[in-house]
Amino acid sequence: MHKFMDWLQNTLMPPMAKIGNNKYLVSVRNGLVLTLPAIISGSVFLIIGNIPIKAWTNFIAPYMNMIGVAVNGSFGIISLLAVIGIGYELSKALEIDPLSGAGLSTMAFVISSFNDKYKLDTDNFASSGLFTAIITAFIAVLIFNFFIKRNIVIKLPAGVPAAVSNSFVALFPGFVILVLFWFVRMPLHIDINQVVQTIFHPLLFAMNTLPGILVYTLLVSLLWVCGIHGDMTLEGIADPIFLQFLAANGTALAHHQPLPYVTAAGFSSLFVNVGGTGATITLVALMLFSKSKTYRDLGKVAFPSALFEINEPVIFGFPIVMNAVTMIPFIVVPLILATLSYLFISIGWISAPVAMVPWTMPPIIGPLMATGWDWRAAVWSAIELLIAGSAYYPFFKVAEKQMLASEKSTPEDGVETVADEN
């Protein structure tokens, strides 16, 4: 176990910490936040239009085309919103004018979206263009930054308002960006979006497979065990993929087509990490009925937040971080739930996520809404809690025994959490 701990601290943590702090991945993570209001708003209409009650279905049927406008108008622009957000955030990280960076990134993305018939292909504004949005934002902002840092810009007198001055500063680099993307797309006839999709296809394919999602799940858990926010560290890489999957599923549902992706956004947060990463809400429930006063008190504090998928109190308070006892179920339980959930969705026993719900949505309710009111998802979520609780129970009893011994030996000073020393 000591060798495993050393591997976590010395081999896994340093590169993962660098990934989590990488300015480009942080820009993607923060920039994609701009897409969430549209996705969540569109999801509301999607959920309303698919309530599985016959009376409601009959009532809403004449209005489904109007509901489709809301769904397509929100899911259909997530890549456009993404390029704006990422261009803005990366420009801010590079300490250049973020508004100009966002505008130039958007221009590059729009040019990339013209087809060979010189028509704007707005399909690229939807989920299929998400990685193109990321790449074009990176290229446009880096070109902009190149000219700014080398002072190859048009400067106006100091008395000119900043908004006007910034627009002229961006004029020359903007023209270069325009010519570059126009030349690649039109004279060279290179379909930029198609090239990007071809490059990233293996990654997209892998993340919708069972081995791919298991590797992702394992990395998230291992990072948390090291005390690093695993979800946030990998968001810059994973979020574009899972959001693209979700938007495609939502669009497919709106058009009454089969759902193409299993691991869409919501799969990990609602089906794998039930009640927080590691399904720790079940550990908190065990603490509420513990013989140890320390664990009972911690359970009372942690349960309200665990109910809404927030589990930092138990991860750092129990603790799970670098604890050789509880890290075992913390790592293994999500792998079990991911495997079973993936298989059940693949064979059609449960619907895949089609709508974005807040990640703080409680277990059972969250899966029910995210799958478009699939009651089987709610039942499975309840069963997952039982599976997770059963897996945590023997390890919790070991930790409880240690804690009771500690409480007995130091009653006058209070007690501290005990991590296995082996």
TrEMBL record:
Q: Where are the transmembrane segments?
A: 31-51, 63-84, 126-148, 160-183, 203-225, 267-289, 330-357, 377-396
Give this protein's Gene Ontology molecular function annotations.
protein-N(PI)-phosphohistidine-sugar phosphotransferase activity
GO-annotated biological processes = carbohydrate derivative transport; phosphoenolpyruvate-dependent sugar phosphotransferase system
**Where is the protein found, in the record's own terms?**
Cell membrane
Q: What UniProt keywords apply to this chain's record, in alphabetical order?
A: Cell membrane, Membrane, Sugar transport, Transmembrane, Transmembrane helix, Transport
Q: Which InterPro entries match?
A: PTS_EIIC, PTS_EIIC_3, PTS_IIC_cello, PTS_Sugar-EIIC/EIIB
Report membrane topology: Multi-pass membrane protein
The source's superkingdom equals Bacteria
Q: Name one Pfam family in it.
A: PTS_EIIC
Cellular component annotations (GO), alphabetically ordered: plasma membrane
Q: What range(s) does the PTS EIIC type-3 domain occupy?
A: 8-395
Job description of the protein: The phosphoenolpyruvate-dependent sugar phosphotransferase system (PTS), a major carbohydrate active -transport system, catalyzes the phosphorylation of incoming sugar substrates concomitant with their translocation across the cell membrane.
Q: Which PANTHER family does the UniProt entry name for this protein?
A: PTHR33989, PTS SYSTEM N,N'-DIACETYLCHITOBIOSE-SPECIFIC EIIC COMPONENT
Q: What is this protein called?
A: Permease IIC component
Q: What is the lineage of its organism?
A: Bacteria, Bacillati, Bacillota, Bacilli, Lactobacillales
